[in-house]
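Blinded run. Sample ID left blank on purpose so nobody reads anything into the name before looking at the predicted structure. Input follows.
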Amino acid sequence: MIGSMIADSARMSVGYAERLLKDVSASQFARFAEVDGKLIESNHPAFILGHLSLYPSRVVSELGADASSIMPSSKFEALFAPSATCLDDPEGKLYPAMNEITDKFFAAHQVAIDVLMSCDDQAFAAANTNERLKAKFATIGSAHAFYLGGHAMLHMGQFSAWRRAMGIGAA
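Blinded prediction complete.
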């Protein structure tokens, strides 16, 4: 039951990402929004979806499943780590192509959702071993709920604001 609850939030995040991507061109994907000639230094979709593509492999691995098919490359880890800075990419040379990032995001989340749905509730009671987060999320279940729910939606809010600043409008 716990896995299906976390999967429900993950599905909502993935569905929202699909809607937010509507009308976003590849040339806009890794760009800061610009309003009245001023760049807004805030996360753009390339960074958001690349960053969020890092977390499903953690969920899958911590639940004891094989995450090898969705492990982020060292390039993704470097570009999209929590410590990485989102950069404007007007030349399209800093970040992978839009389809590479979106394919990774959607595939990784689908694998995580499938694994979540296959787990017994006791799997989520294991202690969170992530030193940085275990004070906030004592179990892997609570960490996974955050990774695929609250954390994802926080970044989807950034994506939504970016769309509006770009003049694309609400999703």
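Unblinding after everyone has recorded impressions. The beta strands are 33-35, 38-40.
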